[in-house]
Fold:
Amino acid sequence: MPCKPESARRARLLVTAALSTWGIEELVDAAKLVVDELLTNAIDHTRCRTARIAIRRIADDRVRISVADTSRDVPDMSNPRQDSEDGRGLVLVDALSDQWGYDRHRTWKVVWAELRTGASR
Structure:
């Protein structure tokens, strides 16, 4: 997808469609927030022209949402000031996901988050 703010809507639709197809709609709200934050970070903090969004069902009770971009800069979960309007994206991803992280490659990286269904938490 293009690294443009309007791509976030398409990413949320992709996640919703995948989770609905797999019959795990209970994760839709959290997954939409997670993909939105991961993509927004790629748009705001890298000079990428495109980002790759992927959602995989890695177990019956677990999905992995990932965003790949052409930057090797790693995500930083900072502690924003109380009056700051931004800087809370990864804090939100951390709260909503079972685990998250990143994989660095030679010229790009993937930031991912895993969510589990409520029955398995």
About this structure: The chain has one domain: 7-120. The first strand starts at residue 52 and ends at 59.
